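Support reply, case 0932

Customer input (verbatim):
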Amino acid sequence: MEIQEIVSTLRQADGRFPSAAIEEAVARREEIVPALLEILEGVERDPQPYLADPKRMEHIYAMFLLAQFRETRAYPLLVRIFSAPAEISHDLTGDIAAIYLGRILASVSDGEIDGITSLIENKQADEYVRSSALSGLLTLVECGKRSREEIMAYYGGLFHKLDRTADNMWNEVAVCCARLCPTEVIQNLRQAYEDNLIEPFLIRPEQIEKAFAAGRDAAMGNLKNTNPLISDAESEMSWWPCFREDEETPEQSKPALNTAPAVLYPVPAAPSSPAPYRIERQEPIRNTSSKIGRNESCPCGSGKKFKKCCGR
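Our regenerated output:
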């Protein structure tokens, strides 16, 4: 299979995962990397063809393959792509940004965090992009590219940088701090709850306190294998509902539901996915804010979409 044939096979979603093309891409890594980078360069230069055609998927495959390859040249491209105004990022990748972007960025960053933090602090970017970038820093701690202390120092600084307005960023900051043990920021978190910046139904104050009491060693032990680098594009993607033509998907709100990347939500946990992270094993702290699709009904029961209600 020639490189252009591989790229052509990856271009359009047809309801089946292109295993043969992905395996060939992995086998011919050195040859295909320039083509994959060219795809991302095209998205950055002009996202309109991808926005106009919900079946275009070569940019999604490119992100996962380049993450698997640890291709650092993809890092600045991805940062610029996801720095676009909120709706563009979502329309380009569906809920992939909320679910996978942090791990993808960590996989291509080689431990460099300036690009990731620029997304986190970019108020024009999609809030799900920003919160996913926050979790990408956890991935760098988990894989040993950054220390817990470095990342906690950064998280601590966000308490003074973020607008004091309740949004998904505050929920994600709380979860990320809890996962690393919030020793340095416990008072900041308590104040954030008092100021109603964090949604208790997403992470409760008592969960923060338990994480604090459990200590750093317990947090680091529980962090292992929960938010890993991308190591196998096929295992990450092949189970998605858009590649299951014979199965009903739970949400039928989008015209291209069985082919577009946005159908990834809502979905069951991947069989090969790591177990949910735990601060203490009997009662996991879950970042449900990154498990709720923008267009799903808000879990508070208001009847509104999450992005128009508690996800604002």
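We compared this against your earlier run and they match. Two observations from our side: Residues 3-244+255-308 form one domain. The longest helix spans residues 29-45. Please reopen the case if you see a mismatch on your end.
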